[in-house]
Amino acid sequence: MTTTTTAGSSASFESSQTKSRLLVAAGEVFAERGFANATVRDICDRAKANVAAINYHFQSKERLYSAVLQHAFVAALEQYPPTLGLPPHASARERLDAFVRAFLLRIFDEGRPAWFGKLISREVLDPTSALEDMIQLAILPQYQALESIIREMAPNLNAEQQRRAAFSVVGQCLYYHHCRPVIERITSSPQYTRQNIDRLAEHITAFSFGGVAALAGTAPSGPAGAGP
User: Fold this and answer.
1) Scanning 49, 53, 77, 140, which has the fewest C-beta atoms within 10 Å of its C-beta?
2) Domain 65-218 has CATH 1.10.1200.10
């Protein structure tokens, strides 16, 4: 009985290890080649797994791709949640700062898989059927949290104005990531260390807070617009 149990535990552990290797290998291959050009054999070779392992663990390449995106997003959000542990009574300014800081830490964390940012960029620019799941799982909840902060900061703005303000906050964060090669050449700035990220978060928070306050002071309340 003991021998059987030990053998079963060993097999279960090996299966779990294989699944983890597939997720990492798939992330690398999908980021390098895109979903369409990545092959099951390429992924299994890199993961040192049997070619049937993907069907066994994920049923298909499509489901594996979706699992890779979800795995990466969930891990990032767990490590750097949008509130960064703030107490419930934190002010809107404090919550905005935490949101921006967490966002920057997620996209600049050098300890995270190097393929994560590239994979997400590929998915956004050339979306697959997995994008909808990614939006529902990770992107929409974050957006709703940010929009609630904007709403608290400027309740007189209509829904369209609040939405655009939220997009502007995110746009600043993404600019520093996507345009990093250009920024580094213009400014000769060093790598994004934790200290640099903290300063950048302070700037984006102050700039955004001031911008929303200016909008709130000049824009009358009105019905929500239909635009983006």
Assistant:
1) 140
2) no
Residues in CB range of 11: below 8 A, 6 or more apart: none
Displacement of CA 208 from its chain's centroid (Å): 20
Long-range pairs for 77-84: beta carbons < 8 A, 24 or more residues apart: 77/106, 77/138, 77/142, 79/105, 79/106, 79/109, 80/105, 80/106, 80/109, 82/142, 82/145, 82/146, 83/145
Domain ranges across the chain: 1-59, 65-218
Q: Enter the pTM of the model.
A: 0.79
Report d(CA 106, CA 178) in Å as an integer: 14
SS3 assignment, position 52: coil
> Scanning the structure block, which residue is given the tokens 């542990």?
85
Topology match between the domains 1-59 and 65-218: no
Paired tokens of 223: 């019905």
Query: Which region, left, alpha or beta, applies to residue 52 given φ > 0 means left and ψ of -120 to 50 means alpha?
Result: alpha
pLDDT tens per residue, range 167-192? 999 999 999 888 888 888 888 766 67
Specify whether the CB–CB gap between 201 and 104 falls below 8 A.
Answer: yes
Burial class (CB in 10 A: 0-12, 13-18, 19+), 221: exposed
> Is the pLDDT reported for residue 18 higher than 50?
yes
